[in-house]
Design goal:
The structure is a single chain. The protein contains 8 helices and 13 strands. It has about 300 residues and is an alpha+beta fold. Strand 8 and strand 9 form a beta hairpin.
C-alpha cells in the first residue's frame, strides 16, 4: 500500500462566473486509484455560496481523475457538487449536460496573465506597442520573460495528467496566450478544460501571476479573450452535405441569443464586430471568416461540407 495525495476540485456557487476550489486528502491504495475507488467527500458550502451556515454540508462526488505531475503519488479529482440527499446541487451545471460520446469538442482557451493587477508586459500606467507583433510572437519585446515558460510548463502538466492538450500560442494582445484542449464526449471535454484551467491557475501561484479569463479586460484597440469551440457530431463528420449544414446554421441563428446567454458575462464588450468578432446581436457564418459567428474551415467546404466547425 502507498499513500496518495488526492486533490479534490470543484466549482463554487459564485455568479455569474464560478471559481475553482480545491482541498486535499491522503488515502492509501495499492496503485494509482481508479475513479471507482475514490470516496465521496464534503466541504463547507457556507464558505462557497453553496449553503447556509445552519446547514452547510455539501458533498463532493468524484467524476474524473488525472495524474498530478507536480506531486509524488498525486491525483487530481474533478468533482460534482451534490446535496446530502444525493441529488445535484443547484450550482452543479455538469449534471445538466446531455452527454453524447459522439459529440467532439476542441476548445481554444484564451487568457491574459496579470501581475499585481496589471496585464503582464504593460508598463505601469501606460501601454506597450499596438497589436501586430504579439500573435505567435517570438522574442522578449513580444512575449516578455515568463509568459512562454508558464504556457510551456502548463502544456507538460496537462499531458502528464492525460488531458488531450493540443497546443499553445501567444495571442493578439500583449500578455495574452491560448491553449487548446480536445475531448470526445460532452462531459469528458468539459472535465478536461476545467482541470486544465485549474493546473494553469495553480501554476500561476509559483510565478506570482493571476490568470484572467474575462472576455474584455482591456478597453480600446485590444483584442478580448474567448474560448472558440471547434465542434462536430457523428452526422457532421460522416454524412455532412451542404443541405444539412444550412439547416444547422438556421438552427443556430434561431437560438443565437439563448446560446449567448450562457456563454459568460460581459460578452457585449467583446462581441462588437471588431477584433475578430461578430456583433453580439447578429449571426453569420463564413468560410475562413474570423469575424463570423461560425467559421467554416476550407477543409470542411472542400470535403462535401463534412468535418468540424468553429
Amino acid at each position: 500500500m502507498a499513500k496518495y495525495r488526492l486533490d479534490y476540485i470543484w466549482l463554487d456557487g459564485y455568479t455569474p462566473v464560478p471559481n475553482l476550489r480545491t482541498k486535499c486528502c491522503i488515502k492509501e491504495f495499492d496503485e494509482f486509484p481508479t475513479l471507482e475507488q475514490l470516496p465521496e467527500w464534503g466541504f463547507d458550502g457556507s464558505s462557497t455560496q453553496q449553503a447556509d451556515g445552519g446547514d452547510s454540508d455539501c458533498v463532493l462526488k468524484p467524476v474524473a481523475i488525472y495524474a498530478d505531475g507536480t506531486r509524488e503519488n498525486g491525483a487530481l479529482v474533478m468533482c460534482e457538487v451534490m446535496l446530502p440527499d444525493g441529488s445535484p446541487h443547484p450550482s452543479n451545471a455538469r449534471a445538466t449536460i446531455l452527454d453524447d460520446e459522439n459529440a467532439w469538442f476542441g476548445f481554444e482557451q484564451e487568457y491574459f496573465f496579470k501581475k499585481d493587477g496589471n496585464i503582464l508586459g504593460f508598463p505601469k500606467g501606460g501601454y506597450p506597442e499596438p497589436q501586430g507583433g504579439y500573435y505567435c510572437g517570438v522574442g522578449y519585446k513580444n512575449v516578455g520573460d515568463i509568459g512562454r515558460a508558464i504556457a510551456d510548463e502548463h502544456l507538460d502538466l496537462c499531458l502528464y495528467a492525460g488531458i488531450n492538450h493540443e497546443g499553445i500560442n501567444a495571442e493578439v494582445a500583449m500578455g495574452q496566450w491560448e491553449f487548446q484542449v480536445f475531448g470526445k464526449g460532452s462531459k469528458k471535454a468539459a472535465d478536461q478544460i476545467w482541470v486544465a484551467r485549474f493546473l494553469l491557475e495553480r501554476l500561476g501561484e509559483e510565478y506570482g501571476v493571476d490568470i484572467e479569463y474575462h472576455c474584455k479586460p482591456l478597453q480600446g484597440d485590444w483584442n478580448g479573450s474567448g474560448m472558440h469551440c471547434n465542434f462536430s457530431t457523428e452526422k457532421l463528420r460522416e454524412e455532412g452535405g451542404k443541405e444539412y449544414f444550412e439547416k444547422l446554421m438556421a438552427a443556430f441563428e434561431k437560438n443565437c441569443m439563448e446560446h449567448i446567454a450562457v456563454y459568460g458575462p460581459d460578452n457585449d464588450q467583446r462581441l462588437t464586430g471588431l477584433h475578430e468578432t461578430q456583433s453580439i446581436d447578429k449571426f453569420s457564418w463564413g468560410i475562413a471568416d474570423r469575424g463570423a459567428s461560425v467559421r467554416v474551415p476550407h477543409s470542411f467546404a472542400k470535403n462535401d461540407w463534412k468535418g468540424y466547425l468553429e
